[in-house]
Amino acid sequence: MKRSDFYVLPSVETSQREQFLYKVVEKVLGLGHRIYIRAATELQAKELDGRLWDYAEHAFIPHSLLAEKISSPVEIGYGDSLPDHQDVYLNFALEVPESALGFDRTIEIVVQTDDVLTATRDNYRRYKEAGFEIHMNDMRPKP
């Protein structure tokens, strides 16, 4: 069964989505999966590419921009571009295109801002309607 993981962070800072993205990518990559990161724009894709090279001193995440046509375990793209696999789709853009539903697993990183919450609620419904098994990873402190 296809699976969708939502990581719900307590932060209202959108920069925390990116910080958490690195951790998720490192973990999923360590499990032997290939990952496609869909950025919202070409600029965002290039920024993620640059930051992945040196986000942590001890880590190495082999990656490339999809437009470079260099096969790597982690590929970053935007718009309608797609990798040659359908393993893991990490949605860093807000909307989910129909093509994302063809992947075996999707990942959403949620912060507590109106635009991200609205988009990820819509994405949750789309994944659910498409038959994905939903896993909520609520990282907010419990009262």
Protein described:
With 143 residues, the protein is α/β, with parallel strands linked by helices. The protein has a single domain, classed as 3-Layer(aba) Sandwich (Rossmann fold), CATH 3.40.50. The chain contains three helices and seven strands; from the N terminus they run βαβαββββαβ. The protein has a seven-stranded parallel beta sheet, with helices on both faces. The longest helix is centred in the N-terminal third of the chain and has 16 residues, at 15-30.
Q: Spans with pLDDT under 50 lasting ≥5 residues?
A: none
Helix content: 25-40%
- CATH architectural label: 3-Layer(aba) Sandwich
Mean pLDDT over the full residue set? 94
In the CATH hierarchy, what is the superfamily? Answer: DNA polymerase III subunit chi
Instruction: Give the count of helical stretches.
Output: 3
| CATH topology (fold) name | Rossmann fold
Provide a quick synopsis of the model.
The chain is of the alpha/beta class and 143 residues long.
Which key terms come to mind for this protein?
3 helices, Rossmann fold, globular, 143 residues, 7 strands, alpha/beta, seven-stranded parallel β-sheet
Write the layout of secondary structure elements.
Layout (H helix, E strand, L loop, with lengths): L2 E6 L6 H16 L4 E5 L2 H12 L9 E3 L8 E5 L9 E4 L13 E6 L3 H16 L3 E6 L5
Parallel strand pairs: 1-6, 1-7, 2-4, 2-5, 3-4, 5-6
